[in-house]
Structures are given as C-alpha cells and as structure tokens.
Design brief:
The complex is a heterodimer of chains A (288) and B (269). Chain A is mostly helical. Chain A has 11 helices and no strands. Chain A has a domain of 199 residues: MetI-like (MetI-like fold). In chain A, α9 runs antiparallel to α11 and α10 packs antiparallel against α11. The longest helix of chain A has 38 residues. Chain B has a domain of 120 residues: Rossmann fold, CATH 3.40.50.300. Chain B contains 7 helices and 9 strands. Chain B is globular. The chains are: A mainly alpha (288), B alpha/beta (269).
Chain lengths: 288, 269
C-alpha cells in the first residue's frame, strides 16, 4: 500500500542526509483491516436480524405476520424471477437520477461557494438562499417542480439536486475559508492574484471539506431520487415508485427488500466517496 | 507608562562588522519615527527609529504583544505605517513566519518551489533554485517527504529553504524557532548563522529569547509594549562566524544580563 512506500522512502532519505534532526516516525492511521474494523458492525447486524426474527415470530400474531416478514422471506425476493428483475431495473433508474443530480449538485455547489468566496458582498447576497434551500420543506416544493419541469426524469433529477446541494455549498465555502492567515500572507507577499491563490492555496486546502460534503450529498441525492419517484412516475421511475406500489398492495416482503436495496445503494455511494476522498487527500489529511 | 531612565549601557565600542564591506554600507531598512495606529485607536508602534544595513543581523526582543511582529509586517509591506517613513531598499525580501506555513499537500520539493512558481519561473529554474536551497538547509534526501512526515525542526528548515529561493538581500524572521525545543533551536541558530555568513543577507529577527538574540545578532534592539517603542540598543561585539561555545563565556552571559535588564526595565518599572 502507499503507506508502506512512504516508510521505505523515509529510510532511504535518512541514509542520504544523516542530519541531527530525525524525522518523526510515520503515524499509521486507522486503516486497520481485519476483525477490528468489520467485527462490530457485523455483530450489530446479527443482533438486529435476531431481533427481527424475535419480533416477527414470537411477539407478532401469525395473522399479522405481513407487518414484519421474516428476513429469509425478504432475502428470497431478490431471487424471485417475478419481482427481482423489476426491482433491479428500478434501482438502476434511481441510480441514474441520483448520480446525475449529485454530479450537478457537486459542480453547482463548488461554483456557488467559490463565487461567494470571491467577495463579501457576493457571500452576503447568496448565502441566505443557500440556507433557505436547506430549510424549506422540499416535499412541499416537489409538486411545483412537477408543474414546471414535467413528471419524468428531468423533474426527478431536479429534486435530487435540490436536496443534495446545500452540503456541497456550505462544506466548500467552509473549506475555502479555513486557510491559515499566514499562508494567505505568504501568497500576498509574492503579489499572487486571487485566481492563483484560489488555484494553489484555497482550492487544495478545501478538498478535504469538499469530499466530506460529497459524501453527505451522495446519500441525500439517493433520498432525493426516491422522493422524486414517489411524485413523478412518468417515464422510467425508480425504486421509489416500486415502494409505493408494494405499499399499496401490502406486499411487505417486497417492500422490505426494496427499502433495503435502496439503503444499500446509498451506503455504496457513501462508501465510494469516502474511498475517493482518501485516495485524493488521504496522503496529507486524515480523512475519516 | 513610565519612561525608563537608563544608565548608558556598557555597549561595547567595537561595532561588529561581520564582513569587512567597503563603506558606506547600503541601508536596507530605514524606519524613521514609525507609528502604527489601528483603526480602533490602539497604538501598536510609536516613534520607532531603526536601520538595518547590509552585513547586519538585527534582533528585536520584547515582551509579547509589544509590536515586534508589527515591525516586520511593516517592513514586508503587509502593513503600512500610519505616521513616519518606513523605507525598504530592496525587492528581494525573504519572510519566515512563526509557523512553517508549508502547504500540507505539497512535498518538500514542491513547497520549496512555491515562491519561484509564484514568480513564474520556468520549471528548470524552479528545480534548480529549490535544489540549492534544500541543500543549504540540509534537507537533501527529504524532497519527497510531506510536511506531516517531518519533525518541527525539519519543517522550519523547509520553510527557510522556501525563502532562500528568493535569494533575499533582506531576511525577516518572525520568531521562527519559538515553537521548537531548546536543542533544535540552538542547532538551527548555528545553521542560520552559517547561512548569514555564506549568503550575505541582512537579517531582522524577532524573538523573545534574549540568549538567542545575543547569539545570533550584530545588534540587539529592546522593545517595550503599549505602545511598542524601542527602549535600548546593544551592539554585539562577538565576531562572525560565531563559535557555538561563545554561549558559555562570561562576556556572553554579561551581555545577556544587560539586555535582560533593559527588557525588564522597559516592561515594568
């Protein structure tokens, strides 16, 4: 792994330059694999499944077992040829909406934050709207979005963008403004213009915060896509549409399966952006 | 604020000239009655007269908050004097901050190249400047290391190297070794003196350590706070290059004592 390489290099460096000041030993950060990292969440999962069985088969009256179908019945849905293909296709549609929305939210959020960072008056003019974006109940807006943008793919993407945008704006802005005054002065002393300062100082310094924002936004974009499905079922709706269909038909095992699939997808996207963040800034920043 | 009536210090009559430069030596910093008043009315500096000539290493000691750093900020152009004139007669000014201020995502090489990069030097020129500077501070072999992989002392060296790429005529130091342990600090003091003798820059160094001040400089300026003003000046008679063992001589201790006295007189009284 990359950390190994860095250690080797340090030793090589010591031979070349036997100065009196020894480099501090490299901190090996929490990249422990093995049971220590996956043990606890697996244990929790086992406990939850056990609890699920307990509630479903002991506490619940057999006539009401549809309220909580046993885990193996839910698992079976994923292999049911009558249900599973629909579900995977719906997941794919949701994923397309969520990732498109996320991509737009990332670009828009970063640009928005950079614009606000250029001048106090721009920040003062635009920041309230970023906050409003976060505080208005998006659900109340969703019908409007339908009127304006139609009831298919495009409208669903807009919902995903609206929900995912704020963390990108606020995290990027925070990152851009987190630089040290002395580092800024270092550039000022060389008469660096604001574009150079942005490119060589502020933007790289903001990357950890931007990646943290992406991770939050990624999860939200998935939520946004599913919410969009509920309202806009034209075209090729995704897993949200299936969820409302299964609910209406009381097909609880398929409902559970769809919900779990949607959350798993959210987890994968979240994990992916964590991984990407560690890849890009992990060498110099302890990206949690 | 009581004005301190001090007996003329036993300043040595031999003005230290580290390198026998032909007269007149050019004045690199010339402050005349410099005053700095902040918009809120706080007077940070008042009536400061200070010159730094080529071949001089001037150290300013004073209690924290006395405006020592403000002096540097005016000399570097980061702040402008509200009254008086502050003249700096060179464009090649190196500035070493209190913290190493390295960019954590850049390795030592890229960090040292930064200033040359900001001056639009070509890559070949940048490389060469950085190589020389890294060699001068003894960091060869650590070019690929990230700041987080270095000790505090090594980070400060990298920071020094970064300023050295400007080939400064005047070097401004804002308590650069204040956060380091005693041993590292003494070691870096020696390295800095070596650079001073070899590279022939003039230095203006801020510190709150009196012995560091006396050891490094050709002239020690004592400041007192609120408002910051110069209360005393001492010439340091010891020749350059300086023998590290000079720290343990009686003369050295006597001078440290005098400076400390002046510092205390200016502070309290």
């Amino acid at each position: 792994m990359s950390t190994e390489g860095m250690i080797e290099h340090r030793e090589a460096g010591q031979e070349i330059a036997p100065t009196t000041v020894a480099p501090v030993p490299l901190r090996r950060r929490g990249r422990r694999g093995g049971i220590a990292s996956w043990g606890p969440p697996v244990a929790v999962a086992i406990l939850m499944i056990a609890g699920w069985y307990f509630v479903g088969s002991v506490l619940l009256d057999p006539s009401k077992s549809y309220l909580m179908p046993p885990p193996h019945a839910v698992l079976a849905v994923y292999f049911d040829p009558d249900v599973a293909p629909d579900m995977y296709e719906a997941l794919w549609n949701t994923a397309t909406v969520a990732l498109t929305g996320l991509l737009v939210a990332i670009v828009l959020g970063v640009v928005w934050a950079i614009a606000m960072n250029q001048a106090k008056w721009i920040e003062r003019s635009l920041y309230p709207y970023a906050v409003i974006l976060q505080t208005i109940p998006i659900l109340a807006l969703v019908p409007l979005i339908g009127f304006w943008f139609g009831f298919d793919f495009f409208a669903r993407v807009i919902v995903a963008i609206l929900i995912a945008l704020f963390p990108m704006v606020s995290n990027t802005l925070f990152g851009l403004q987190s630089i040290d005054a002395a580092q800024r002065e270092l550039f000022t002393l060389q008469r660096a213009n604001r574009w150079i300062v942005l490119k060589k100082l502020q933007f790289p310094a903001a990357l950890p915060a931007i990646f943290a924002g992406m991770r939050i936004s990624a999860g939200l974009a998935v939520v946004g896509a599913i919410v969009g499905d509920f309202f806009f079922q034209r075209g090729t709706p995704g897993i949200g549409a299936l969820i409302s269909k299964y609910t209406a038909r009381l097909e609880s095992d398929a409902l559970f399966a769809a919900i779990i699939l949607a959350s798993l997808f959210g987890v994968v996207v979240f994990w992916f952006f964590g991984w990407l963040g560690r890849r890009v800034v992990g060498k110099w920043y302890d990206f949690a | 604020m009581a004005t301190t009536e001090r007996a003329p210090a036993i300043t040595s009559t031999t003005t230290a000239t580290p390198t026998p430069t032909p007269t007149p030596t050019p004045t690199l910093i010339d402050f005349e009655h410099v005053q700095l008043t902040y918009p809120n009315g706080t007077i940070a500096l008042s009536g400061v007269d200070l010159t730094v000539r080529r071949g001089e290493f001037v150290t300013v000691v004073g209690p924290s908050g006395c405006g020592k750093s403000t002096l540097l900020r005016i000399a570097s152009g980061l702040e402008t004097a509200s009254e008086g004139t502050a003249t700096v007669n060179t464009g090649r000014v190196g500035y070493v901050f209190q913290d190493p201020t390295l960019l954590p995502w850049r390795n030592v090489q890229a960090n040292v190249e930064l200033l040359a990069e900001l001056q639009w030097d070509t890559q070949a020129v940048r490389r060469e400047k950085a190589r020389r500077a890294i060699e001068l501070v003894g960091l060869s072999g650590f070019e690929k290391h990230l700041p987080r992989q270095l000790s505090g002392g090594m980070r400060m060296r990298a920071s020094l190297a970064r300023s050295l790429t400007l080939d400064p005529e005047l070097f401004l130091f804002d308590e650069p070794f204040g956060a380091l342990d005693e041993i590292t600090r003494e070691y870096l003091n020696d390295e800095l003196l070596k650079l001073f003798v070899e590279q022939q820059f003039a230095g203006l160094f801020i510190t709150h350590s009196v012995s560091e001040a006396v050891y490094l400089s050709t002239k020690v300026v004592v400041m007192s706070g609120r408002p910051g003003r110069i209360v005393d000046t001492f010439d340091v008679p010891f020749p350059m290059p300086r023998d590290p063992d000079i720290r343990y001589t009686g003369e050295f201790a006597a001078l440290v004592g005098e400076v400390s006295h002046a510092l205390r007189a200016g502070h309290g009284a």
